[in-house]
Amino acid sequence: MYTLGINAYHGDSSACLYKDTELLCATEEERINRIKHWAGLPIEAIRFCLTDASIELKDLDNICISRDPKAKLKDKVLHSLKNRVSIKAILSRGANSLKIGGLKDDIAKAFEVDPKTLKAKVHFIEHHRAHMASSFFISPFEESAILSVDGMGDFTSTMRGLGKGNQLTVLDSVTYPHSIGIFYTSFTQYLGFPHYGDEYKLMGLSPYGSPKYVDKILGEVIRLKSNGLFELNGDYFRHFREGVHMSWEGGSPEIGPIFSKKMIETFGPSRKKGEQLLQHQMDLAASVQEVCEQIIFRMAEDLYQKTGLKNLCLTGGVAQNSMANGKIVRNTSFERLFVPPAGHDAGTATGSALYYLHQLRHKKRPSYSVQAYTGIQFSDEQIKDFLDSRNIVYKQFEEKELLDWLSTQLMQGAVVGWFQGRAEFGPRALGNRSILVDPTRKDAKALLNDKIKKRESFRPFAPSILEEYVAEYFVQVDDVPFMEKVFDIIPEKQKIIPAVTHVNGTGRLQTVSSVSNPKYHALISKFFEKSGVPILLNTSFNENEPIVNTPEHALDCYLRTNMDILVIGNFVIHRN
């Protein structure tokens, strides 16, 4: 039985394919069409999944989508009537719902086949149930509390529940327009970061400030409720009454300004994109991050009290807040936390399929494994043919020789593009589509930004660490295979790895296992053997674009930047 899962007509569109309960492949549309956070129907991602599995559209038994137009229909109508939402906004939402209803026909049309030849049944899975499934059903837990938090999907912004075996139970939810995700996005826009997905910039900026405005925000802008949840003060946000322009159709998604005049009256003029950051703006970023963390901790602790379970699965766009994630176990009664590799909306493609397979069909869950490397891959022959077609001078190494040579180059200051195996699924480069640098270099951040990244100086770079040595460098010890948690670096170690130590003494680590990524583990091990440091700086292989997906993307990025070395498989391109 083949089941296709998709996130469609929404930001971070994606597709995955299961054979029975085995995940064969998964990828985001942006990796293929090169448009960040692409919104629409993920035709190329679907095409990749079918090609990778050597099947055709007619072979599919099920198509699952992480949207349900019927979810909270009553709440949608009441909100529109109560707040006099514009006819234009209502028509836009209606058109989006109609597209979802015509999903099968749209896919058939894109593949130029007759819809009548498709046997697949379409299953509409509520957005947050898909989020919950995307985390719990791939977690190592037999039972767990589950918390899903994002901007909004199917008129819900937060959902809490629990999972046992192959079943989820929803306990409660927060209905739009109340939303932590929208709260965080509005302040992200206010601070001069207007693009979809810019929230990580506010998070990176927050350690440079002091949380002076927590009391001003908590209780005024966002309020705590006795049931462990929250509500927004609509005076500070436009989406309560005016609606907000949102574009989810065939391109990079756009969200218009969410914050209202009340926000400006209370906190002063908003920052324009590109303007110099002032200290009070950094303090506001620190305050927003602090409030967000407090609300997450409170919702999680209340969920613990309701369930009594020691494990927590966290998911949704807000689950990409790695600073908050790294503090949850310390600030709640939970003992273990699992965050999936794609906690954001792309992950609802897998979640919709998993919900159908386990919740609705009662299929047994497979044993736990790291499911992060599910994208496209290339053989040695394909890589060689491509490089030859571009008349590129290269050297092919044996793997042992490559790791020995490359570790020395890293120690000598080389910036290395590292392209290996299957591409990652999710927003993080986890050692298969990465740029690598020696983490002991004090000038590494400036080096990377000068040669490649050209990004804001306040944004940190991440450490990939051999899982065996986490306790020697970090205060907290945990498996963090998906780079989803920020932990405190032991003070005396911070001066050893300055390139991956943020201004507040933390690092967003990735623990690297010899089981899930043996070649990357072997490279870090060889670097450790020579340098005494079991860590490499790991940042995504891209330059203001989606992470590279193919050898062509990797080579083009290498040629238009000042990267020193490009490694594709065991093929090496060197400027010298």
Question: What do these coordinates show?
Answer:
This protein is of the alpha/beta class and 576 residues long. It contains 21 helices and 23 strands. It is globular. The N and C termini lie far apart (51 Å). It has three domains: 2-128, Nucleotidyltransferase, domain 5; 140-339, 2-Layer Sandwich (Nucleotidyltransferase, domain 5), CATH 3.30.420; 380-574, DHBP synthase.
Short description:
Helices cover 35% and strands 20% of the residues.
Which strand order does the major sheet show? 15-23-22-16-17-21-18-20-19
- Low-confidence regions: none
Number of domains: 3
CATH topology of the largest domain: Nucleotidyltransferase, domain 5
**CATH superfamily placement of the largest domain:** ATPase, nucleotide binding domain
> What is the name of the CATH architecture of the largest domain?
2-Layer Sandwich
The overall pLDDT, averaged over residues, is 95
Strand content: 15-25%
Q: Work out the helicity level.
A: 25-40%
Which of globular, elongated, flat, extended, rod-shaped describes the shape? globular
Main beta sheet: strand number and arrangement? 9 strands, mixed
Q: What is the count of β-strands?
A: 23
Distance between the terminal alpha carbons, to the nearest Å? 51 Å
Classified by CATH, the class of the largest domain is Alpha Beta
Features of this protein?
DHBP synthase, nine-stranded mixed sheet, five-stranded mixed sheet, Nucleotidyltransferase, domain 5, globular, 576 residues, single chain
Summarize the helices and strands and which ones pair or pack.
Layout (H helix, E strand, L loop, with lengths): L1 E6 L6 E6 L2 E7 H5 L9 H11 L8 E4 L7 H11 L3 H15 L1 H8 L10 E4 L2 H10 L6 E11 L2 E9 L2 E9 L4 H11 L8 H7 L8 H4 L4 E3 L5 E3 L13 E2 L6 E2 L5 H7 L11 H29 L3 E5 L6 H4 L2 H4 L4 E3 L9 H13 L19 H10 L5 E2 L2 H13 L4 E4 L13 E5 L6 H10 L8 E5 L3 H4 L11 E4 L2 H4 L11 E7 L5 H14 L3 E6 L10 H10 L4 E4 L2 E4 L2
Parallel strand pairs: 1-4, 4-5, 6-13, 13-14, 16-22, 18-20
Antiparallel strand pairs: 1-2, 2-3, 6-7, 7-8, 9-10, 11-12, 15-23, 16-17, 17-21, 18-21, 19-20, 22-23
Helix pairs in contact: 6-14, 7-11, 16-20
